[in-house]
């Protein structure tokens, strides 16, 4: 599977920001309190997560009866998705700021494989999705008028996982299998980042890099049967993953 250059994908948000800023009526922003830093508000962002999925890659190929036909070496290991949240409270002082956040994030990775058999072309489409509900607190310091340094961010998330496996035979027959974790997994993360003021006290862009202490050890089919074998005790996804997210903050003064 050919991956898109991540740098190109991170251009999506800046382009969106330019359009937003250039098209917004600034007098309307003043009257509505379009404030950002030092105030509560909402945000939306785009992120990429890299993770260790060695066991997962071994397992999803075992699940496929067509795996000996596939020549593509695509593997799970990099998810992408969006985050939407709120700065519940952001207190800013002369020398530091503290923010309490709540957010929802969904990440997805899609792998499509094709191969030729004696009866024709076989294909298989794997979709891995992870949905998060999270809370976090960050601590930072002002650097310049237009830049703040987020020294540390720590948080906890509840995560649901779903894997779908769609198999298509040469005659067009489709068969889909679904695997889920039965309950939310509790994960923790730490990070740091930068906050750029596009319009001081109105709009900012926030970039954060995080390390998550997470793992995925169990998945179940629709009959509630666990699909991990005993020798796979390490789990589908090993503990720890690296993430980067860029978000646009829009605030409302209290």
Features of this protein?
mainly beta, 8-stranded antiparallel β-barrel, 13% helix, 254 residues, disordered N terminus, single chain, 9 strands
Can you describe this structure?
By secondary structure, the protein is mainly beta. The protein contains four helices and nine strands; from the N terminus they run αααβαββββββββ. The chain has an eight-stranded antiparallel β-barrel with strand order 1-2-3-4-5-7-8-9. β2 (78-92) and β3 (97-117) form a beta hairpin. Mean pLDDT is 76; it is low at 1-7 and 9-38.
The chain-level mean pLDDT equals: 76
Find the count of extended strands (DSSP E, 2+ residues).
Answer: 9
Radius of gyration: 22 Å
Structural class: mainly beta
Run of helices and strands: HHHEHEEEEEEEE
Helix content: 10-25%
**Poorly predicted runs:** 1-7, 9-38
**What's the overall geometry?**
elongated
How far apart the termini lie comes to 48 Å
Strand order of the largest sheet: 1-2-3-4-5-7-8-9
Biggest pleated-sheet summary: 8 strands, antiparallel, barrel
**Helix segment tally:** 4
Strand content: over 45%
Brief digest:
The chain is mainly beta and 254 residues long.
């Amino acid at each position: 599977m050919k991956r898109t250059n991540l740098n190109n994908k991170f251009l999506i948000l800046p382009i969106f920001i330019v359009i937003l800023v250039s098209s917004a009526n600034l007098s309307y922003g003043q009257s509505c309190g379009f404030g950002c830093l030092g105030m509560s508000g909402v945000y939306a962002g785009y992120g990429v997560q890299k993770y260790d999925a060695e066991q997962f890659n071994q397992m999803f190929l075992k699940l496929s009866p067509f795996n000996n036909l596939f020549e593509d070496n695509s593997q799970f290991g990099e998810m992408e998705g969006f985050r939407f949240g709120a700065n519940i409270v952001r207190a800013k002082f002369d020398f530091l700021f503290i923010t309490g956040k709540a957010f929802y994030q969904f990440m997805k990775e899609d792998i499509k494989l094709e191969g030729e058999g004696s009866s024709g072309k076989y294909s298989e489409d794997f979709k891995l999705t992870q949905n998060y509900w999270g809370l976090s607190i960050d601590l930072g310091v002002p650097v310049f008028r237009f830049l703040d340094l987020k020294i540390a961010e720590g948080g906890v998330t509840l995560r649901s996982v779903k894997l779908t496996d769609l198999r298509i035979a040469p005659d067009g027959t489709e068969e889909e299998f679904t695997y889920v974790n039965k309950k939310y997994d509790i994960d923790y993360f730490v990070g740091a980042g930068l906050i750029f003021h596009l319009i001081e006290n109105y709009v900012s862009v926030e970039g954060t890099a995080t390390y998550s202490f997470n793992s995925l050890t169990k998945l179940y089919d629709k009959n509630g049967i666990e699909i991990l074998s005993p020798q796979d005790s390490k789990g589908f996804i090993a503990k720890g993953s690296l993430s980067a997210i860029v978000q646009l903050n829009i605030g409302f003064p209290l």
